[in-house]
Fold this sequence. Notes:
The protein is elongated, with a radius of gyration of 27 Å. The chain is an alpha/beta fold. Mean pLDDT is 93; it is low at 384-392. Helix 10 (161-171) packs parallel to helix 11 and helix 10 packs across helix 15 (316-333). 34% of the residues lie in helices and 16% in strands. The strands form 2 sheets. It has an 8-stranded mixed β-sheet with strand order 8-7-6-9-10-11-12-13, with helices on both faces. A 5-stranded parallel β-sheet has the order 1-5-4-2-3. The structure holds zinc ion.
Amino acid sequence: MASYRELLQQIREEIEEIGAPQARELVEEGEAAVVDVRERDEWEEGHIPRAVHIPRGNLESRIEGAVADKSRAVLLYCSGGNRSAFAAKTLEELGYENVLSLAGGFTDWKRNGLPFELPRALDEAKRRRYSRHLLIPEVGEEGQLKLLDSRVLLIGAGGLGSPASLYLAAAGVGTLGIVDDDVVDETNLQRQIVHSTERLGESKAESAKRTIEALNPDVNVKVFQERLTAENVDRILGEGWDVIVDGADNFPTRYLLNDASVWHGIPVVHGSIYRFEGQTTVFKPHEGPCYRCLFPQPPPPELAPSCAEGGVLGVLPGVIGSLQANEALKLSLGIGEPLVGRLLMFDALAGSFTEISLRRDPDCPVCGENPTITDYIDYVEFCQGGRTHVTP
Ligand SMILES: [Zn+2]
């Protein structure tokens, strides 16, 4: 039976090792995938630029996700060059054709005065709070840091804005903007779960802010206690948002927001609800249709639906607003297939979803090749709270 020293010696003879200066050339020319096999606490104290972190214990299970092409050169390193030597042997056994181990490891790299990076990392409290995200490879620590850097603007803190804001806040979206000039009243509480009975008469935006801050103090909430208008839309959107969640559900805001989002280049997650039906889609400027590609102009007031308040099953905005939060998280993380050019419809009575494709209109007055609308239009508030469904 070989001792550790003997085994290490034997492995060293079987693998290829390179020194720090040579490794640096490989790293700078991008000719090798660089894998750090140390433990998390070591990684957090600094690592070689462009390296990916796969602790030795996870190497076999995670290397193919990080380096799919087995003919690509892989440079492995640890702190002193021993763990990476064993790791190199393992990769060769897995079929990697060109594996190198950094002799002297990260210690020698630093001793040579070569550049290294300090990673951004979640602290212990955040690692616990977002542990169920960290367990998903598509999110992980990098994704969680991305969410904490994300900025999502919610238009409306009502039925759709309630679940959307709560889930986005719980997920750790770092900055949430809330635009709402309304106050909480009794008829809201049947579905607007971000508010409560004790908040009756308070500003909805402020009430939502208090609930969100109690849920997750990591979230910075920016309140806009105003209604979106042609006068303020550039100022509000100009603060820089990655995604807008539209929970306004009225024509004037919908058209104004559409035009502004196309001009500011910000994707809008649209949602609307009526009685037992809800729908959602993503309007991503110039990649998919915008709202005006589907409906170039609002209907004339005499053809608009009744201006009586529309009834809605209390849970319906919970379903649609949650789907909107899902789209906003996907867009922020850059994962999955956002609902661009796809309208997802939900029928609460049937308990069924239907999807239809939506096409861009090359003659769209806003996002088309020869736009005819180039300035904001404030449409008359002819049917606030009525249905603005995309489908007839
Ligand atoms: Zn368009």
